[in-house]
Write a structure and sequence with these properties.
alpha/beta, Rossmann fold, single chain, 6-stranded mixed sheet, globular, 8 helices
């Protein structure tokens, strides 16, 4: 029997609140972000799952989301692997800029292309395809084999790194993945078949808050 894979996008960060491009910069969670992480943890506790291992990025907003979730499920000392393969998409020269300021500098259409195209990267940064090219090998070599061996695996990461995994699991096209927004702090519970395809998917929370 295969295990279970749970994906959670970190709670709201200080820069989400300020409408800044964050990428690989390292702001922490807001009070709302902490609440979102606690809500996700409580939902997993009610779901009744215990984890064998956790993965997160090298960025503090994802790590602290994971810590809060593990406290809620009663596994604060769970083995955790941190890897920059799971980092948020690198926004390059846009990092740290207010999204309105970026539009004033480069034009609304160009910023929209960088944010919403699949394979056009911002200056010095990554496109969604580039992000996937970093995430997919790590998922295939480090995360998926554990699930297929029957482990329950928790991944707390970022909107775009997790979209890359969801794109594979949910078999989404390039167009579909561009329209997918993952809600902050809301666990997605995947049970996988032996061939690594999805047997079932449960979303534990309110997806209407996605942004």
């Amino acid at each position: 029997m295969t295990g279970t894979l749970v994906l959670v996008r970190h709670g709201q960060s200080e820069w989400n609140l300020k409408n800044l491009f964050t990428g690989w910069r390292d702001p922490d969670l807001t009070e709302l972000g902490i609440e979102e992480a606690n809500a996700g943890g409580k939902a997993l506790a009610e779901y009744g799952i215990k984890f064998d291992i956790a993965f997160t990025s090298v960025l503090v907003r994802a790590q602290n989301t994971l810590k809060i979730i593990l406290d809620n499920v009663g596994q604060p000392d769970l083995e955790t692997i941190r890897d920059q393969a799971l980092n948020e998409r690198d926004y390059g020269d846009l990092s740290g800029l207010n999204k309105d300021d970026a539009r004033a500098k480069w034009g609304e259409e160009q910023v929209h292309i960088w944010r919403r195209s699949y394979d056009v990267p911002p200056p010095g940064g990554e496109s969604l395809r580039d992000t996937g090219a970093r995430v997919w090998p790590y998922y295939l070599t480090d995360i998926l084999p554990r699930v297929l061996r029957g482990q329950n695996v928790l991944v707390a990461a970022h909107g775009n790194s997790l979209r890359s995994v969801v794109m594979v699991l949910d078999r989404l096209s390039r167009e579909e993945i561009l329209n997918l927004n993952l809600a902050t702090g809301v666990p997605m519970v995947y049970k996988l078949k032996a061939d690594s395809t999805v047997a079932s998917k449960d979303v534990l929370g309110d997806m209407s808050g996605a942004h």
